[in-house]
From TrEMBL:
<dbReference type="Pfam" id="PF00144">
    <property type="entry name" value="Beta-lactamase"/>
</dbReference>
<protein>
    <submittedName>
        <fullName>Serine hydrolase domain-containing protein</fullName>
        <ecNumber>3.1.1.103</ecNumber>
    </submittedName>
</protein>
<dbReference type="InterPro" id="IPR012338">
    <property type="entry name" value="Beta-lactam/transpept-like"/>
</dbReference>
<feature type="signal peptide">
    <location>
        <begin position="1"/>
        <end position="17"/>
    </location>
</feature>
<keyword id="KW-0732">Signal</keyword>
<dbReference type="InterPro" id="IPR050789">
    <property type="entry name" value="Diverse_Enzym_Activities"/>
</dbReference>
<feature type="region of interest" description="Disordered">
    <location>
        <begin position="21"/>
        <end position="41"/>
    </location>
</feature>
<feature type="domain" description="Beta-lactamase-related">
    <location>
        <begin position="81"/>
        <end position="297"/>
    </location>
</feature>
<dbReference type="GO" id="GO:0016787">
    <property type="term" value="F:hydrolase activity"/>
</dbReference>
<dbReference type="InterPro" id="IPR001466">
    <property type="entry name" value="Beta-lactam-related"/>
</dbReference>
<keyword id="KW-0378">Hydrolase</keyword>
Length: 369
């Protein structure tokens, strides 16, 4: 009896192992790798000539019937220059009101994005740190604050509009120390104050021991084939260039800091911080870039926070350089888009975002549907 039981146990074990072998195949020692997500190669126009490839509306399956209404809308709203790039190639390029492709136009505050990018290169090269006091690079006594108050303001505060300097002074563009007064603790309040932004020129100059304009030209402008120049106008340092130069800078940011195969900024941490929410006070603001798709936003000239997205009809991942009189640089990574609009004010001379942004995106959505 014991022998029969032992044989039964052995037979059951063999059958079980056999079944297990049949139903549970051995793992493949060389599994197939998961496919990489498809990526669209970007086109980069050559440096040193006017060659720039285009792509047709038909190829993109965009609505050609909406081009004329878009151009009418742009012309009626005081536009001088307008460009759409798709994956780096020109889809539309149009000039109005006697303006031409070779003429320079001011970027106004859309040029803040140029300064932010330049600051990123300076910190990447070890010339400055965002958490350092700005007085480390400008010297003490640059403001009317006490020495203790002054050293609390960091480079990052200048990049994020959180210095706490008094924005109610009679001239908020004034960078004289008499105009730079204490109002709030740094990082405690967000307000679109131009003077602290303008001081970034002096911060970068002091850090790299080279004039800000020359450093920018060497590190960004000349490397990506831009043209243009910074022009001192009162307290402001304005950038003037062609619309195509603005489009080149947009393309650089669409490719996250690399021009074709040439790295212009390699610090991924800084680039991501620059183009995402930089502080909790205004979720729609990065390092001098405006951000769409957030739950609330603040705008220049106001102490209030408004619910909703900055540009409701635009893609959520849009980042933008926005300047007075409706200078627009839109970058939309999910769609491979760079869009440039230069001109006079459409319907408001406000700084930064205006109602024209959403009106324009209504037209753009009709074109691209």
């Amino acid at each position: 009896m014991k022998t029969k039981s032992l044989l039964l146990i052995l037979w059951t074990t063999v059958v079980f192992m056999s079944c297990s072998t049949e139903t549970e195949p051995a793992p493949n020692p060389n599994p197939e790798p998961e496919p990489e997500p498809e990526t669209q190669n970007l086109y980069f126009p050559p440096i040193g000539n006017d060659t720039w490839e285009s792509v047709s509306l038909e190829t993109l399956a965009w609505n050609a019937d909406q081009v004329d209404p878009l151009y009418t809308f742009l012309e009626d709203n005081n536009t001088d220059a307008f460009i759409i790039l798709k994956d780096g190639k020109i889809v539309l390029e149009q000039y109005f009101n006697g303006f031409s492709a070779s003429q320079n136009h001011t970027w106004n505050s859309a040029a803040k994005t140029l300064t932010s990018f330049t600051a990123g290169i300076a910190q990447e090269e070890g010339f400055l740190a965002l958490d350092d006091a700005s007085s480390d690079y400008m010297g003490s006594g640059w403001s009317s604050l006490t020495p203790e108050q002054e050293v609390m303001i960091t480079v990052k505060n200048h990049l994020t509009m959180t210095t706490g300097l008094d924005y109610t002074v009679s001239n908020s563009f004034c960078t004289d120390k008499e105009c730079l007064l204490y109002k709030n603790e740094p990082n405690s309040y967000w307000y679109y104050h131009n003077a602290p932004y303008t001081l970034l020129d002096a911060i970068i100059t002091g850090a790299v021991q080279q004039d800000f304009k020359d450093y920018f030209n060497t590190k960004i402008r000349d490397k990506i084939g831009m043209q243009g120049t910074w022009v001192k106008t009162g307290y402001l340092n304005l950038y003037f260039s062609t619309a195509r130069s603005m489009a080149r800078f947009g393309l650089l940011n669409l490719n996250e800091g690399t021009w074709e195969d040439a790295p212009i900024m390699t610090d991924r941490t800084y680039f991501n911080a620059m183009t995402t929410t930089s502080q909790e006070l205004n979720s729609s603001y990065g390092y001098l870039w405006w951000l769409n798709g957030k739950n609330s936003f603040r705008i220049p000239g106001s102490e209030d926070s408004f619910p909703g997205k900055l540009i409701p009809d635009a893609p959520d991942d849009l980042v933008a350089g926005l300047g007075a009189n409706d200078q627009k640089l839109y970058v939309v990574p999910s769609m491979g888009l760079v869009i440039v609009r230069m001109g006079d004010a459409a319907n408001s001379s406000e700084l930064g975002p205006t109602t024209f942004d959403n009106q324009l995106w209504t037209q753009l959505n009709a074109l691209m549907e």
